[in-house]
Design goal:
With 422 residues, the chain is mainly β. The protein has helices spanning 13-23, 387-391, and strands spanning 6-8, 40-43, 50-51, 55-60, 63-68, 73-76, 104-109, 112-119, 122-128, 136-142, 146-154, 157-165, 179-187, 193-202, 204-210, 214-221, 224-231, 237-240, 252-253, 259-267, 273-281, 286-292, 305-311, 314-319, 322-326, 333-338, 350-356, 360-368, 378-386, 398-401. It contains two helices and 30 strands.
Length: 422
């Protein structure tokens, strides 16, 4: 499967601003929106997006969008009159403000958008107005021998992982794992930087999720993870013991509790596979089994459990491309929904559930090129479906972002059919 596109988020009055821009009759400036940012945002996976309370930022086919959850609309981050919002692949001379490279993170803070991206000197933090005008360099985060990994924005702080070449003089001879890794904190107001964690040379350093109070992270050595809880305010860490050695699986924090959930996938000596969701109580330093895949009737044998959320009406989880709503007490399956069957197309090869809100689920899906049959050439959509429709298995996905280019650079129409060749 190809590498999925990238995602980002905004809210409230930005919708009015950008819709005015896409209508392109006049230009709005000076828009401020205190609801735009959230006290906690994860900069983890650009393919799934950067989510705030009311929306998500996403890059698709070289154009950056704000997906507004309330309006269920995707708006290009550009306010130029009469702009067609063409990517560089569609028009090398495009001047659309929404044009974006794939290897960047975008997040809102105050009344500005911030971007983390590479330049000729390394990795730089820049800011712009909400329509991506008035762009300014804020801070050079690291030089060419450093790499920005993941981050979380906690109020006015950017907490992020850094990988630096351990021996610069012999950098070309080192492999990717001979790196010094750390967690650093940048104050977005003062631009002062502090090292929270110095992990030294290790195979990996992963942020796994949390809240504005804490962040769970792993230090990976010899393919096994050691786990820690970072106090986001003080920068202090405490090691914890989890029933897994997988240092890459993300956690699911509980609402308003110092409790989180995580998944474990094990293979016994005799070859039997087991997938379990665990519940970890931070204050008690205690974990217990929440759900075993074996309890989910009909779950695919080769698939592991992915916890989506704990709802009032049950535990919502995914195994393969199938969602299960499981009773909290009896673990009886109350709902079983194939994600493939709610899509508006019948030939999807991949589907991914990105976000769920109280009212809707946001997902991405792909086909291989129908015209050429090239299985390495993917065509992607982003869509939304109401939670009631999803849990009732209705074919009710609404397209938010239609494809414009295939992964191989072939132009396509909104139905995913080729209109030309690169």
């Amino acid at each position: 499967m190809k590498k999925w596109g990238k995602v980002f988020v905004l809210t409230g009055s930005i919708v009015a601003m950008l819709i005015a821009g896409t209508g392109c009759s006049k230009k709005n400036t000076g828009i401020k929106n205190e609801k735009l940012a959230s006290d906690y945002m994860e900069l983890f996976n650009m393919s799934e997006g950067i989510k705030t309370e009311e929306g998500c930022f996403k890059i698709q086919d070289g154009i950056c969008y704000y997906v507004d959850f309330g309006e269920e609309k995707a708006i290009p981050l550009c306010n130029k009159p009469e702009c067609r919002h063409l990517s560089e692949a569609e028009d090398p001379d495009t001047e659309c403000n929404a044009v974006s490279g794939e290897d960047m993170y975008i997040f809102p803070y105050g009344d500005r958008l911030y971007e983390i991206a590479g330049n000729e000197d390394g990795t730089v933090l820049t800011s712009s107005a909400l329509d991506r005008t008035d762009r300014k360099e804020v801070k050079q985060l690291m030089d060419i021998y450093g790499n920005f990994g993941q981050g979380v924005v906690v109020k006015n702080r950017l907490i992020y992982t850094v990988s630096k070449v351990a021996d610069i003089q012999n950098a070309e001879e080192l492999n990717d794992f001979t790196m010094m890794r750390s967690i650093e904190c940048l104050n977005l107001d003062t631009l002062e930087t502090e090292v929270y964690v110095d992990a030294g040379i290790c195979d990996g350093l992963q942020l796994l999720g949390g809240t504005e109070e804490y962040q769970v992270y792993s230090v990976i050595k010899n393919y096994e993870g050691s786990f820690y809880i970072l106090d986001c305010k003080t920068g202090k860490s405490e090691e914890i013991s989890l029933h897994t050695a997988d240092g890459y699986k993300k956690i699911v924090p509980a609402d308003q509790e110092k409790i989180f959930y995580y998944e474990d996938w094990e293979v016994s000596p005799d070859g039997e596979k087991s997938s379990t969701v665990w519940r970890y109580d931070i204050e008690k330093s205690k974990e217990e089994v929440l759900l075993k895949k074996e309890e989910i009737q009909g779950a695919e044998e080769e698939s592991s459990i992915r916890l989506i959320e704990i709802r009032e009406d049950g535990i919502l989880c995914e195994a393969g491309d199938v969602l299960y709503l499981v009773d909290k007490e009896s673990h009886r399956v109350n709902k079983k929904i194939s994600l493939m069957e709610v899509l508006p197309i019948s030939d999807a090869k991949e589907v991914r559930l990105d976000f769920v809100t109280e009212d809707a689920a946001y997902l991405a899906y792909e086909i291989t090129n129908r015209t050429t049959g090239d299985e390495s050439d993917w065509i992607s959509w982003d869509g939304v479906i109401g939670m009631d429709d999803l849990l009732n298995g209705k074919k009710a996905v609404k397209v938010l972002i239609a494809p414009r280019m295939s992964s191989a650079g072939n132009p396509v129409d909104e139905d995913g059919n080729m209109t030309g060749s690169k």
